[in-house]
Amino acid sequence: MSTLNLSVLQQPLVWMDGEANLRFFDALLADLHDRDLIVLPEMFTTGFAMEAAKNSLPEMRVIQWLREKARETDAMVGGSAAIQTEQGAVNRFLLVDPDGKVHRYDKRHLFRMADEHHHYLAGERREVVEWRGWRILPQVCYDLRFPVFSRNQNDYDLALYVANWPAARASHWQALLLARAIENQAYIAGCNRVGSDGNQHHYSGDSRVIGPQGDILAEGESHQPVILHAELSLEKLQEYREKFPAWRDADAFSF
After folding, report:
1. SS3 breakdown of the chain: % helix, strand, coil, rounded to 5?
2. Which of 84, 22, 79, 80 is nearest to 53 (CA)?
3. Can 219 be counted among the known catalytic residues?
């Protein structure tokens, strides 16, 4: 499929109430049709907190819900959730397709300024998910600040960043999303929440979908709940990368 119909849900979250958040997103997803990929914010079942994993829904409950939504919408659906595993807590990006297949990526870069690295385990590798002819790189919030980790080795077409990025740093969020699109010659979708959380942190959203040349394809109004829609073209992406093959001059490296 050369066209990908993407929806990004810039929404508030109910603090530490997983079932309430699932009911909230139930209503929103019921009105979404003819989509290929639907993206929810970081820690969409709890809000971002160090204690979230201890109060979160079991992973299988979250996966069950994502499978239901993916089947109902005939789209891949995902976002990150605080998950308690046998080894410890992780901030896990879950993407589930309509056939029920589950893709997992654990956040690699933990936000030490909030002591996230003392409460969660860092992921060991990045993941690229293939879906309807597209190669998709899931990333989580603080990962956005580390360009080497998301450098395109001609292995992805679209990078997804889900976040609880505070309003005080909204300009950084916007600038970094733009930089990742241009330097990687890829589509970038950034899904950030809005509203306030139980720690009185405020979030402005400013979600965006950006094309490989830095063109803004969709953007969310600051501080407003909104669903962004964008139609991405794999043919246009490949044509641009062939005409301007800067990616060929990137230094080789591996993770």
Report:
1. 30, 30, 40
2. 84
3. no
Of 59, 107, 191, 219, the active-site residue reads 107
Q: Which residues are bridge partners to 218 per DSSP? A: 209
pLDDT in tens, 179-223: 999 999 999 999 999 999 999 999 999 999 999 999 999 999 999
Question: What is Dmax (Cα atoms) for the chain?
Answer: 50
The one catalytic residue in 59, 69, 141, 191 is 141
Phi-psi sector, 43: left (phi>0), alpha (psi -120 to 50), beta: left
Active site residue 42: yes
Q: Is 141 known to be catalytic?
A: yes
pTM of the model: 0.97
Is the sign of the CA dihedral 134, 138, 141, 144 positive or negative?
A: negative
Contact 150, 143 (CB under 8 A): yes
